[in-house]
Amino acid sequence: MKMIIHIFFTLSLVSSISFASVQDFCVADPKGPQSPSGYSCKNPDQVTENDFAFSGLAKAGNTSNIIKAAVTPAFAPTFAGINGLGVSLARLDLASGGVIPLHTHPGASEVLVVIQGTICAGFISSANKVYLKTLEKGDSMVFPQGLLHFQLNSGKGPALAFVAFGSSSPGLQILSFALFANDLPSELVEATTFLSDAEVKKLKGVLGGTN
């Protein structure tokens, strides 16, 4: 009898732990609460085939900006059907000279595939070793989770790439924006980057930072 109770308890515990993994899906409900693991699930009775399709990557992004580039994400909840599935996508449009500045994705690794043009891409390891590669149409490159990386259009015309992430919400932090696009005091930026006061103020002015 004790063995039966023990088995029943164990099965109940395993069932409760793996409940999320046996669900077919968890379509994001943007009106519900969000947790580190994702958005709450939409009522299955309200889920339709449209939740599992996304057409936002078909249109080129606007590259008329300071970086001459555009990122069109397909993350949860914009693409509601990927919530909780551990995947997401984005489209990168880079005009001539366009760049996706040094940035990190704290929540996921990234794989890039070049569709058009030539892209110089690279990342920096935690040992400060640089891994740099010029990618042509059809080439791909992986960027490990959390490491600083970038993409630069090094060709003569526009470039297009698609990226995939190992999370429905990979997160994003752009290094230059973190330093110069907020109210972090200039003297602290200067002390931690060894840049001059004039250089810091110039970059803050360009990126909209204050203080």
Number of helices: 5
Taking pLDDT < 50 over at least 5 consecutive residues as the criterion, the unreliable ranges are 3-20
Average residue-wise pLDDT: 88
Approximately how much helix is present in the residues?
A: 10-25%
Query: How many extended strands?
Result: 12
Q: In one word, what is the shape?
A: globular
User: How is the CATH topology of the domain at 63-171 named?
Assistant: Jelly Rolls
In terms of structural class, how would the helical and strand content be classed?
alpha+beta
Q: Report how far apart the termini are.
A: 71 Å
CATH class membership of the domain at 63-171: Mainly Beta
Q: Order of strands across the widest beta sheet?
A: 3-4-11-6-9
Strand residue content: 25-35%
* CATH architecture title of the domain at 63-171: Sandwich
How many whole angstroms does the radius of gyration measure?
A: 22 Å
